[in-house]
Amino acid sequence: MAKFAVFGTGTVGQCLAGRLSELGNTVIVGTRNVEDTMARTEKDMYGNPPYAEWLKNHPGILTGTFKEAASKCDIIVNCTMGHASMDALQSAEATDLKGKILIDIANPLDFSGGFPPSLLICNTDSLGERIQQAFPELQVVKTLNTMNAWLMVNPALVPGNHTVFVSGNDAGAKGTVKGILSSFGWETYNILDLGDITTARGTEMLLPVWVRLYGALQTPMFNFHINIAGKNQP
């Protein structure tokens, strides 16, 4: 079992932290200001309870600042909003990041123009790449950013085969992350390694498609499935 720092107290952070804890890992959730986070009483945009209420049902999970969480973990999971990801990581000490894996789930969504959102970064760059460039001491692995939070940790919610993508420069780090995905229930043949961190451009740019599919289907419970010609499917 590992020690995880989950950055972000929203729906994605709660889903990832809860599942990792259920699997027997030590989990500390990182936030900018613990007192402010615990004082919130409003539900989020999806009607989910505030973090403090959620935490009552997960007594084994700890809460701290981003710096505190990073200092106590083996692996960091970035579940912050994309526009805030760099600031969250900069809150940690360089020594607390060195040599650690960062599972980057964030997307660089821009809601300033309303809904549907646009992308703050696209085409020739990605949030995953910017994080890797800014924090070379981290081993950044982009994954799980092309689906809703509940599906990330329980792929069986959508019947049949469907795909989770992985991008990153370090083969060992990607191997560790693939093992974590397997522990969530992802079958090996549905984990698609796209290559180095530059391939995160493609998965981040799937988000505008995902948002429009959400609008057309009127449910977030769907995912992409990659069929390969000439290859038998399990």
Write the SSE topology.
Layout: E1 3-7, H1 11-22, E2 26-31, H2 34-39, H3 51-56, E3 62-65, H4 66-71, E4 75-78, H5 85-90, H6 94-97, E5 101-104, E6 109-110, E7 118-119, H7 127-134, E8 139-143, H8 149-153, E9 164-168, H9 171-184, E10 191-195, H10 200-204, H11 207-217
Parallel strand pairs: 1-2, 1-4, 2-3, 4-5, 5-8, 9-10
Antiparallel strand pairs: 6-7, 8-9
Describe what this molecule looks like in 3D.
The chain has 234 residues and is of the alpha/beta class. The chain has one domain (3-217): Rossmann fold (3-Layer(aba) Sandwich). Helices cover 35% and strands 18% of the residues. The protein has helices spanning 11-22, 34-39, 51-56, 66-71, 85-90, 94-97, 127-134, 149-153, 171-184, 200-204, 207-217; strands at 3-7, 26-31, 62-65, 75-78, 101-104, 109-110, 118-119, 139-143, 164-168, 191-195. Strand 6 and strand 7 (118-119) form a beta hairpin. The longest helix has 14 residues, at 171-184. The two termini are 29 Å apart. The mean pLDDT is 94.
